[in-house]
Write a structure and sequence with these properties.
Blueprint lengths: L7 E9 L3 E6 L4 E5 L15 E6 L9 E8 L2 E4 L4 H11 L11 E8 L4 E9 L3 E10 L1 E3 L2 E4 L5 H15 L3 E8 L6 E4 L5 H12 L3 E9 L4 E6 L5
Parallel strand pairs: 9-12, 11-13, 12-14
Antiparallel strand pairs: 1-2, 1-4, 2-3, 4-5, 5-6, 7-8, 8-9, 10-11, 14-15
Length: 233
């Protein structure tokens, strides 16, 4: 996925109220950017970290800038949680996710499950049937291990239960973690942060939910999935 225009560079001042971040642009101007990430962004929010933003000059937008990437040391981390769905859909269409090849149709945000949640991607094929794909963005990495979630996630717990339900109905159910940074060597549940999520993840894996993790290559020009990493529960 290529950014539609060059990203604008700056430095992080602070992130607050979940969806706001103050950034000092390289020009010296201080702006407030929309931060499309409801997680804690643990490990990413050191003042002075390099930041990269997209600019959207639309009359309907109160905040013209969106925070896309933060740099931790030499590692660029994609923080926009709206992008992984697009990355996965693009990768599926290009045949880069071997487990999800050869489906004829992809639909977005289709109601499913007991509670009528909305699945990120629904794959359809006359021979293969239905495949429900829930996508999660991962930015927390410690010593090469990527962890999810980075904060207690009741919503994430709900999605696990919904996937288990569709699996029990005979459909494929896939949970796909996208590591939006290049230094993750494996993916594990963050038991120290949300033990309930970790317990549920292990449970639904036994009930037929497929757990996958792919690492993304994050650059200021584009972000794309590049490599599968093991899931260690």
């Amino acid at each position: 996925m290529k950014f539609s225009s060059p990203l604008i560079a700056g430095k992080l001042i602070k992130r607050y109220k979940r969806f706001l971040a103050d950034i000092q642009l390289d020009s010296g101007e201080i702006i407030t950017a929309h931060t499309p990430n409801s997680g804690s962004m643990k490990g990413l929010l050191k003042k002075g970290n390099r930041a990269w933003l997209s600019f959207h000059d639309l009359p309907s937008r109160k905040l013209k800038y969106t925070l896309e990437i933060l740099e931790v040391g030499k590692i660029k981390v994609g923080v926009n949680t709206h992008l992984p769905n697009l990355l996965v859909e693009e990768a599926i269409q290009a045949g880069k996710i071997k487990e999800l090849k050869s489906y004829q149709e992809i639909q977005r945000e289709v109601p499913y499950g007991r509670e009528r949640s909305r699945i990120d991607l629904l794959l359809k094929d006359p021979k293969k049937g239905l495949c429900y794909v829930e996508v999660k963005n991962v930015t927390l990495i410690e010593d090469g291990v990527a962890y999810f979630p980075d904060a207690v996630s009741v919503r994430g717990q709900k999605h696990l239960k919904e996937l288990a339900f569709v699996a029990s109905q005979g459909h494929r159910a896939v949970l796909l973690f996208v590591l939006q940074r290049s230094d993750g060597k494996q993916l594990s549940p963050a038991d120290a942060i949300d033990p309930t999520y970790g317990k549920l993840l292990r449970q639904v894996a036994k009930e037929g939910v497929e757990i996958l993790a792919y690492r993304a290559k994050v650059e200021t020009q584009a972000i794309s999935l590049e490599k599968q990493v093991p899931v260690v529960c």
